[in-house]
Structure formats: structure tokens, C-alpha cells
Amino acid sequence: MSDTSEMVRFSRVLKKYGDHVVLRDLDFTVAPGEFVTLIGPSGSGKTTILRLLMTLERVDGGTIHVGGECLTHLERDGKLVPANEKHLRRMRRRIGMVFQQFNLFPNMDVMQNITEAPIRALGLSRGEAEARAVDLLEMVGLSDKAKEHPSRLSGGQQQRVAIARALAMRPEIVLLDEVTSALDPELVAGVLKLLKDIASTTNITFLCVTHEMQFARDVSDRVMMFDQGQIIESAPPEELFTAPSHPRTQEFLHAVVDRA
Ligand SMILES: Nc1ncnc2c1ncn2[C@@H]1O[C@H](COP(=O)(O)OP(=O)(O)OP(=O)(O)O)[C@@H](O)[C@H]1O
After folding, report:
1. Exposure class string for 121-145: b at 16+ Cβ within 10 A, else e
2. What is the band of 49 on the pLDDT scale with cuts at 50, 70, 90?
3. How far out from the chain centre does Cα 55 lie?
4. Which domain of life is it from (predicted)?
5. What is the pLDDT of residues 53-90, one digit of tens each?
6. Residue 252 Cα, ligand 1 centroid: separation in angstroms?
């Protein structure tokens, strides 16, 4: 199947940890270039969705398609079999992820952090990878930090490097997992502004887990409310935040606003 009108498709996805069912019969799609934010209570399965897409976890049932191609399975003799490591590695290149804890390589400088994967996984020459990194460093406002090591950068700067590193692979999809939760409050707005600029100037598809409701409101094309591994509401932000239709969404948004 090759349906390029969908960048992501979850079909009847089941995910369990032991006996604990985290996602059950989960269906959703994300269109190319769409910015979709996942919100919902702690433990509702949001991060698990990103981890499945990053192939850090395997599904226990159902399938996931990325760009019209099956991520989770391969066809062998007319039957679907779980994808092998080679297939997962190839598919993973289409997807970038930015984590809460930056996850930069501490022993590499900023330039090496950004060029390592394009050289190793895409086979770019060092010159090509560095030219790409120079442009990205300019985009994230860190042109003067190429030779620094991550430990000498602020959290906000480290997260900008992590964003540049993800974009260096020219991914079709970028997954954002609570990217500002480890930042000092004064650094949050700058990183969110950068992401908003990137989202509005590229065709990248974003899937974002965040507790920053104002950001979700500003940047998302669609917000999906999760509860106990199910999508209970999916709507454009202006609709979901102003007139949520599901009582659990109303409750959740009240609780988040009261905490802020
Ligand atoms: N590796 C794991 N082993 C066992 N249980 C896990 C594992 N990872 C997640 N879980 C459980 O799966 C459920 C969903 O977790 P997940 O991290 O996807 O939720 P979340 O909605 O992202 O929560 P939060 O907003 O707190 O990050 C939780 O009950 C969690 O305890």
C-alpha cells in the first residue's frame, strides 16, 4: 500500500507492557505537513506513540504506516511478518525525534553532534554534512557555537542543537517529546518560538507531546486528546481549547489551567 496522502497511519494498534494494555485498537492518521499535538493525562500513552514510531518499541497488534509504507511489518509470501532490523533502520531515517533530555553526545562538539548521523547513516561526505550543519546552526541561532561541547551550553542552547541534529537528517516527520520540560522557565519561549518558525517554514510533519497548552494552541493544526490509550477528541486547537466536547477533555483542560 502506498498512500502518500497520509504521513502517519495507526491501524488498530495494540501495545501492552506485560499485562498492562497501554494502547488498544488505536486508529489515527496524520496528513503530510500537519502539526498534530497529543495532550492528555500522565500515563495515557502519548509517549508510547512516539516510541512506537521511533521503533524503540514494537506493536503487539495492528500496523503503523509512515509515508504510505508499512513500518511495523513486511510482506513475505503473501503474509505480514514483523519488520526486521534492516527495514526498521531504513524507516527510522525518515523520522527525527527531539527528546526532553536533549540526549546530545557529550564527547562530541556541536558540529560533530549534528554531522555524525548524516555521515554515518546517510553516507554524506564530511564537507556536505558540515555545509548542512552550518545552515542549520544559523537557523537555530548558534553559528558561533560549532566548536563548543554540550556541557558548555545552556539547556536552551543544547535543545537548539538537538533540533538542528534532528533536522540534519532531513526527516519527513519530527517527533517532539516534552521538549521544554527540562528547561529553565526563561528559556522555554525561545525554543518554542524556534519550533513554531520551523513548522511554519517547512513541510515537515510534526507529532508533538507537550504540556505547554499555549504552544499547542499557537502552533498545532490539530490537537488529539488522549485518555487511557484512546483518542477521545480530535479537533483544531481553536475548537478543542475553547469548546471541548468531551467531559474528560473539559476536566483535563480545567486541571491544567488551574495548575498554571
Ligand atoms: N517500559 C515500560 N514498561 C512498563 N510500563 C511502561 C513502560 N513505558 C510506559 N509504561 C506505562 O505505559 C503507560 C503509558 O505511558 P506513556 O509514557 O506513554 O504515557 P504518557 O501519556 O506519555 O505519560 P506522561 O505524560 O506522564 O509522559 C503508563 O502507565 C506507563 O507507566
Report:
1. eeebeeeebbebbeebbebbebeeb
2. very high
3. 12
4. Bacteria
5. 999 999 999 999 999 999 999 999 999 899 999 999 99
6. 18
Predicted local distance difference test score (pLDDT) of residue 4: 66
pTM of the model: 0.92
Ligand 1, residues 26, 37, 42, 180: which to mutate, most atoms within 8 A of Cβ?
42
Nearest CA to ligand 1 atom 16: 45
ipTM: 0.94
Calpha distance 176→39 (Å, rounded): 12
Non-local (6+) Cβ contacts of 168 within 8 A are 114, 115, 117, 118, 129, 132, 133, 136
Residue 70 one-letter amino acid: C
* Strand pairing class (8-17; 61-66): antiparallel
User: How many angstroms is it from 238 CA to the middle of ligand 1?
Assistant: 28
**Which of 188, 173, 213, 148 has the alpha carbon at shortest distance from 53?**
173
Residue with cell 494552541: 217
